[in-house]
Amino acid sequence: MITRNKTPSKYVYYALHLYFSGLSLRRASERPSQLFKRNHVSIWNWIQKYKPQKMQSRRRKVLEYIVDETMLKVGSEYIWLWVAIEPKNRQILTLSISKERNMFVAERFIGGLVKFNGKHPVSTDGGTWYPMACKFLGLKHHNHSPYEKSIIERTMQYIKDRTESFDDYFPCRVKNCKLSHVRNWLNMFLDYHNSEIKLVK
Fold it and tell me: How is the chain split into domains, by residue range?
């Protein structure tokens, strides 16, 4: 939840909703101006303070893990974003970032999924780091079907569109950054995205 903020939480969530719907920070601050007046810096601060609900407070029914990774730019460096979704409800199961892409990172990422959701088949794009990671974890592995490829690619593009906006407005200038602000942002994105899917259904 939002802490140390005098603005009513319903207004905070409304502003965040506007932002994650694709508006810039300035536009997200202008739209609700008839209800309350806050500038784009206030919304940025809400993003930093936001603590997403524990989406994994209980196990969800999972048919399989559709996993993929993509490169993102944070400031002057590039990082890897790892994403896992569930094909039936299309919710994002988890997001993770790393500065390297290899079998050990893939194993750690998928292992986190298994620890909470149990063992299920893993679908990937055929990256060479996935089969061995799945073998070590005792999981069945296969390449994406056309349907699986379609939904994971749409999800990845949706995330990339949002993260590009984030880096344009607030590029990281910290040397040897620990990327905690990126993790906080992605956690809020995951919370919002999954909540929206539930509402649609």
Answer: 9-49, 65-173
Q: Per-residue pLDDT tens for 81-131?
A: 999 999 888 889 999 999 999 999 999 999 999 998 999 999 999 899 999
Q: Which of 86, 45, 66 is nearest to 143 (CA)?
A: 66
- Cβ distance 98 to 79 under 8 Å? yes
Give the residue carrying structure tokens 């088949």.
Answer: 121
For 19-63, what is each residue's pLDDT tens digit? Answer: 765 577 788 778 766 667 777 788 777 777 765 554 444 556 888
Question: Among 70, 80, 82, 48, which Cα is nearest to 169's?
Answer: 48
Q: What is the pLDDT confidence band of residue 168, given thresholds at 50, 70 and 90?
A: low
Q: Which fold has domain 65-173?
A: Nucleotidyltransferase; domain 5 (3.30.420)
Q: pTM of the entire structure?
A: 0.72
| β 141-143/122-124 pair status | parallel
- What angle in degrees, to the nearest 10, is found between the helix axes of 129-137 and 103-117? 40
CA separation for the pair 191, 87 (Å, rounded): 18
